[in-house]
Amino acid sequence: MELFIFLLLLLPIFLFFIFSRNSSSDPGYKSYPIIGSLPGLAKNRHRPLDWTVEILSRCPTQTSVFRRPVNQRIVVTANPANVEYILKTKFECFPKGELFISFLEDFLGRGIFNSDGEMWWKQRKTASYEFNTRSLRDFVMTNVTIEINTRLVPVLSEAANAGKLIDIQDVFERFAFDNICKLAFNVDPGCLGDDGAVGVKFMRAFETASEIISKRFQSLVSYTWKIKRKLNIGSERVLRESIVSVHKFADDIVRNRIIDHGRSENKNEDLLSRFISNEEMNSPELLRDIVISFILAGRDSTSSALSWFFWLLSLHPEVEHKILQELRLIRERTGKKIGDVYGFEDLKLMNFLHAAITESLRLYPPIPLDQMSCVEDTVLPDGTFVGKDWGISYSAYVMGRMESENPYKFPVFHAGPRMCIGKEMAYIQIKSIVASMLERFVVEVPGKEERPEILLSVTLRIKGGLFVKLHERT
Known about the structure:
Keywords: Heme, Iron, Metal-binding, Monooxygenase, Oxidoreductase, Signal. One of its GO terms (biological process) is lipid metabolic process. Its cofactor is heme. The protein is 59% helix and 9% strand. By secondary structure, the chain is α+β, with helices and mostly antiparallel strands. The protein has a domain at 109-362 and 417-436: CATH 1.10.630.10. It has a 4-stranded mixed β-sheet with strand order 1-2-7-4. Helix 7 (134-162) runs parallel beside helix 18, helix 13 (284-315) packs across helix 16 (351-363) and helix 14 runs antiparallel to helix 16. The protein is globular. The N and C termini lie far apart (87 Å).
């Protein structure tokens, strides 16, 4: 009994010694007995990305180990050599892993962004074929031009004439949603028009699901969301209801496309049709997962990139001036007037605009972080040990704020075998929209001096939207 009391009295001293030692000697995530790195996470839950920038900036190799309770470890890195090792050199050693997949499976199923091995490879191969065709590029150009002239510009002109504030992030999300549905599934939800009530309902459910899914990764104790899901309470109940709406919309697309596919002479006229033609991948459930995955890629990524770009541009009028100069020179060279269609060759001449968009993507990448698992003990190029079944994560957001010169320093579109297959399509859409908007409108962002609050969903969104005031450019 006396020994027990003595040890109990020594416990606070022991814990103080451990805490103090960690605080003074470890530049990375502070870790404590039993609870791991949770105190730091709890303190910085409202700013996890900027917190990670601070942590990794003071680490000699821009790498640290985050510890969860029960000694669960996640290596977090912004080291370009490590990222190249993970994404390319030892790609097979770092799959998504069942733990990561389980976090997203309710929402994304086993679509291309939430699968490994043969399942991932087959989806990648099928989608890559479609994205590498010139016919798709031409279709993207034609569709984007039509959407800009018939839907986007009229909506923006109405807002400008009314002199009212408009949430430009919401406009971009509606535009991108209509666009990806047309390109990938040959479906027009009409979200940016007056007849898109079903599409808007889906979008709201999709956004809710994305936010709640993202919070699973940020939970202080990783299994709490599983308990709430089992009991169908709190955020997990809301998530389940949102996913029902998301699945219904995707299932309707799949069902209608299967019917149309059976009647059509051209069996592979869009991305979804190509998957339907593949007997190994045309189960209704998998097709639904594929639909949801490509909506995520086509809607959220593009709208995120555009929203952050216009906020950054509002802080740098000299950049806007140079973009307008470049557009004017291109029009003089091609003999086109404002309102005339920009072709693919015209977009290739927009070098300064391309650079400005790329710089915006560096600072605010639509997919700010990615996580994998490790299937065997290994050592990263910087000497960091990664154990079997450990998690490993890199952040394009953090890497964009580090000082380094390496091809893998800027993985906004990822790299290696999982590199984004829609990169060219994304630049086509973004450059077309920015050029068309800037030539027609002055975009004023009230309160631009204060950075908008980040909403860390599956993608990097602006919390509460980005409200702007538009003026017809004279």
